[in-house]
Amino acid sequence: MNEECARIKNALEQAYDVPFEVNGSIQDGDPLFEIAPENDSQELFRLSVTFKNATRVIINFIPEKYSAPLIKDMSEAPQEKKRLFAQYAGILIKERFAQIDFVINGIKCNPCVFEDWPVEWRDFSCRITRSPVAGDDEEFKLADLTIDWGGIALGMFLSLMNVVPTTTDAPELVTGHTEGKSYQVVSTRYERSLLNRKFCIALKGYTCAICGFDFCSFYGDVGEGFIEVHHIEPVSLMDIEKTINPETDLIPVCSNCHSILHRRTPPYSPEDIISLISGR
Ligand SMILES: [Zn+2]
Ligand SMILES: [Zn+2]
After folding, report:
1. Which-ligand-closest: CA of 257?
2. Burial class (CB in 10 A: 0-12, 13-18, 19+), 116
3. Which helix (H) or strand (E) segment is 1 a member of?
4. Domain limits, the chain
5. Residue 167, exposed/middle/buried by CB under 10 A (0-12, 13-18, 19+)?
6. Of the bound ligands, which one is closest to the alpha carbon of residue 214?
7. Alpha carbon of 42 to ligand 2 centroid (Å)
8. Which of 38, 98, 120, 196 could pair with 130 as two cysteines, CB 3.0-4.6 Å apart?
9. 256 CA distance to ligand 1 middle (Å)
10. What would the mean pLDDT of 39-68 be, rounded to a whole number?
11. Is 185 within 8 Å of 37 (Cβ atoms)?
């Protein structure tokens, strides 16, 4: 269990650049993993991932003791962040056939239609279920399932939150609870577009969208989880946070194809390079 926790922690930290605490236990005979941002016992939220009878994955977003400012902030998140959340929910429902019980102020809402969510959130809960999940996989890898499902769920919730860098010049930002910002989800390497990039990968996978190269199958474990993300529209022409739609504007590409795309300014279109290499 400890080894699995360490693997989950590694994979999620690599994916989101947020330090997590991961605990594993057995509850009613089923394995349960709990994931929480590691931040000075702020007790904001935790995500529990459990596998009922090894066939059904259940993920719960559990608000903790000091979650009130977090939930307030989530409700006040700009449209762009809410759209990203809705897109993540869409993946889980449409691509992964999950069921999402998304409840705000005791009212069940559609997680994909953020325009209909209540304006003010007093409380919030979310439960994601999917069964069967293991299918006929020979080896039922619990940690992998947690990384996969818990990872997408985490991306979904993090997309509504304020994620701030730990390496900041303002020390009061790290200690938190100062004026204006009453909570922190800290990141070791903050990137404005990080969640957009993670969303792109969650949706489109780790295979190069141009040549089909897969780092993991070529390099083995060392290449696992590696891919670059290309903005189809040149970044310099866009306001990253405001206008990127990861579903249509970003693609996963291998390092070679990425370099070739950028051999021209503005970059070649993915189709240009695909037609260049097709028929080889
Ligand atoms: Zn490629
Ligand atoms: Zn690029």
Report:
1. 1
2. exposed
3. none
4. 2-187, 194-277
5. exposed
6. 1
7. 37
8. 98
9. 6
10. 85
11. yes
C-alpha distance from residue 144 to each of 147, 149, 206, 252 (Å): 5, 8, 15, 21
Residues 55 and 133: their CA atoms lie apart, in Å, by: 5
Percent helix, strand and coil across the chain, each to the nearest 5: 40, 25, 40
One-letter amino acid for residue 280 of the chain: R
Distance 135 CA to ligand 2 centre (A): 36
Dump pLDDT digits (tens) for 128-144.
998 876 554 544 577 88
What percentage of the chain carries pLDDT values higher than 70? Answer: 81
Closest CA to 36 of 176, 188, 154: 154
Residues 24 and 32: beta-carbon distance below 8 Å: yes
Q: Which two tokens mark 10?
A: 């590694």
The pLDDT tens digits for 232-257 are 876 555 554 455 777 888 899 999 99
Nearest to 34 by CA among 44, 45, 47: 47
Q: How far is CA 69 from CA 73, 174, 181, 207, in A?
A: 6, 16, 9, 39
152 token code pair: 């997408």
